[in-house]
Design brief:
It contains 10 helices and 14 strands. By secondary structure, it is α/β, with parallel strands linked by helices.
């Protein structure tokens, strides 16, 4: 049942917002888990939400779907009476930005990379899934955008949101709560599943690997990592994910150089030794192979 809910939530990220009504949000419970210091993670339906609470404010990373906003705010309210002052979007997909308009109305300032605002401002088309996502309402758009990085000094911590080269999309940011040593990677990290590389949004499998390498370069035995989807983990969990992607990417690349077609690549079982552990989520093995193929220039 949980697997079906995760798949539905991820699919809603790349389909028209009107289809969100097909999911029964009334049954979704938003649960919080303390991580370290002021930082918590909230899980409901959609991307994981990071929350920092403290005397200054409540600071939020991503906000899932609009129908869950009241539940999310209630869950945050159980952690702190301080209002949400900032919401940082890790990228543009609706399971991470769907609550933006409601959060803005509640007084939060929405912050994201400039490509997030650009993509939310106009209709998007995903070629692999043949799906269109309409432009977001004006009230959902980030009101503060940046090109490289932005730093917040809140709740006794220094929080750095840094843009990474195209990975899951072309607008990904990774958020590091530096004193707590907690990193929110957004959908550059799918813990336990093959990643969704949104090639139509400028994503690239090499960038997914690069994002993991960037975080691993500063990882310590104490670092806690929040993925876009899946349970919070440590550097070893991220390294395992990274190594699987590299292994399958290298196989696809080698076979492409031999001239294999996309259909031949899908039939070749290039990920079969990883499918049992990583291939049962939203992105099934043949789709993962196609996303790698298209990332590497296949048409």
């Amino acid at each position: 049942m949980k697997t079906r809910v995760r798949r539905a939530a991820l699919l809603l990220a790349v389909v028209p917002a009107t289809l969100a009504a097909q999911q029964n949000f009334d049954t979704i419970q938003v649960r919080s888990q303390p991580l370290r210091g002021s930082v918590h993670v909230l899980q409901g339906s959609g991307g994981n939400i990071g929350v920092s609470v403290g005397p200054d404010m409540t600071f939020v990373v991503d906000d899932q779907y609009a129908p869950l906003s009241q539940k999310i705010l209630a869950a945050i309210g159980r952690l702190s009476s301080q209002p949400v002052k900032f919401v940082v979007n890790t990228h543009w997909h609706g399971d991470h930005t769907g609550g933006n308009e409601n959060m803005g109305k509640a007084g939060a300032v929405i912050v994201a990379h400039e490509n997030v605002r650009k993509r939310m401002s106009v209709e998007q088309f995903n070629a692999v899934f043949n799906r269109r996502t309409p432009a977001s309402p004006a009230g959902a758009l980030p009101v503060v955008s940046f090109s490289d990085s932005v730093r917040f000094h809140i709740n006794g911590d220094d929080v750095v949101a840094s843009h990474v080269p195209p990975a899951h999309t072309d607008g990904d940011v990774i958020i590091h709560f530096t004193k707590a040593d907690v990193v929110h990677m957004g959908d550059t990290f799918f813990n336990g599943n093959f990643p969704f590389v949104d090639v139509s949004s400028g994503g690239n499998v090499n960038g997914v690997i690069g994002a993991a390498d960037r975080v691993l370069a500063t990882c310590t035995p104490q670092t806690i990592i929040i993925p876009g989807h899946g349970a919070a983990t440590d550097c070893a969990g991220l390294r395992a994910y990274r190594n699987v992607i590299v292994a399958v990417r290298d196989r696809v690349q080698a076979e492409m150089r031999k001239g294999l077609t996309l259909e031949q690549l899908k039939a070749a079982g290039l990920s079969k030794d990883h499918d049992e552990r990583w291939g049962k989520g939203f992105i099934q093995p043949p789709v993962f192979i196609e996303l790698i193929y298209r990332s590497l220039g296949g048409t």
